[in-house]
Amino acid sequence: MDTQSMKRFEQELRVMAAEVSRHLREKDRVHILVERSAETCEQETLAGQREMAFQSLDRNSLLLREVRAALDRIDDDEYGRCLKCEGEISEARLRALSYARHCLSCQEQIDRLSGSFPFRFAA
Ligand SMILES: [Zn+2]
User: Fold this and answer.
1) pLDDT (0 to 100) of residue 32
2) Whole-number CA gyration radius for the chain
3) What pLDDT score does 118 carry?
4) Ligand 1: distance of its center to the CA of 32 in Å?
5) pLDDT tens, 34-87?
6) How far apart are alpha carbons 25 and 22 in whole angstroms?
7) Residue 23 lies in a domain
8) Ligand 1 ion: nearby residues, β-carbon < 5 Å
9) Residue 82: which residues within 8 A CB-CB, separation 6 or more?
10) Residue 79 is part of which domain span?
């Protein structure tokens, strides 16, 4: 990968990290607000809201971790290299998923093994 593309991905990842961090901080505030309205809210609605806030918090924490790991890989000059087969991750894949850890074929393998491949029917 040329330096220019690398810089572009780095920029994108930094923006993403900043946005997700900000979002996580805002979620914290929302969570506190939900807690405070406990007396006026119906219990079930409250539980639902809290669960949704948590789920989104969870996903965003994971995302932030992935984005930061990708930035570390840029620092270590390992960015764009698959962590499994050490082959190059295509720029097309990185453009779609700039924090990708694995090349497409390794990712498909991992997804199949973990059973989370999105298009698989449960037999
Ligand atoms: Zn690979």
Assistant:
1) 65
2) 19
3) 53
4) 42
5) 666 655 556 677 777 777 776 777 888 999 999 999 999 999 999 999 999 999
6) 5
7) yes
8) 82, 84-85, 87, 103, 106
9) 88, 89, 101, 102, 103, 106
10) 3-114
Structural domain contains residue 25: yes
Gap from CA of 46 to ligand 1 centroid (Å): 44
Q: Is residue 119 part of a domain?
A: no
Residue 14: inside a domain, yes or no? yes
Three-state SS for the chain is CCHHHHHHHHHHHHHHHHHHHHHHHHHHHHHHHHHHHHHCCCHHHHHHHHHHHHHHHHHHHHHHHHHHHHHHHHHCCCCCECCCCCCECCHHHHHHCCCCCCCHHHHHHHHHHHCCCCCCCCC
**CA 103 to ligand 1 centroid distance, Å:** 4
CATH number at residue 67: 1.20.120.910
Total domains present in the chain:
1
- How much is the pTM? 0.73
Hey, what are 113's tokens?
């093994």
Instruction: Quote the pLDDT of residue 114.
Output: 79
Going from the Cα of 68 to the center of ligand 1, the distance in angstroms, rounded, reads 20
